[in-house]
Amino acid sequence: RETRAPRRGPGPGPGPGPGPGRRCSRTNGWSWPPHPLQLLAWLLYVFFAVAGFGVFVPLLPAHWIPAGYICTGVTFSAHLLVHVLAVSVDPADRNVRLKADRGPPPAFDRTRRAHVIENCHCFLCQVDVGSKSKHC
Ligand SMILES: [Zn+2]
């Protein structure tokens, strides 16, 4: 099984290229700097919380307002819990997590290899990984 290296464009994604813009690999969603889509996810959560609890629920008929707050509150709380759990998990392969040195990933030489992961071995991390590993 082979996994292609992510394309490094001019976008804000992490890039292993040389120079001052080189970034460390992320361990989870709390790693700095955040990706714009992470910021968008948090901003949308706050937006829908404000819109739901501050605008839509108060507009319900009076006898439906408690149900609106309870149902929406349970849903938003569950979503927040799952969101925080998903952000806090380190999705790297177990062997990558066990590797002591997890500094910035080296530059990937496309002239030597077509894929970062070939035959369940990551050539950036220099560790064997599972067949479903998608890291790097
Ligand atoms: Zn790797």
UniProtKB/TrEMBL annotation:
What parts of the sequence cross the membrane? 39-61, 67-89
What are the entry keywords?
Membrane, Transmembrane, Transmembrane helix
Residue spans of biased composition, Pro residues class: 9-19
> What is the top-level taxon of the source organism?
Eukaryota
The protein's name is Palmitoyltransferase ZDHHC1
Region (Disordered), start-end ranges: 1-27
Tell me the organism: Salarias fasciatus (Jewelled blenny)
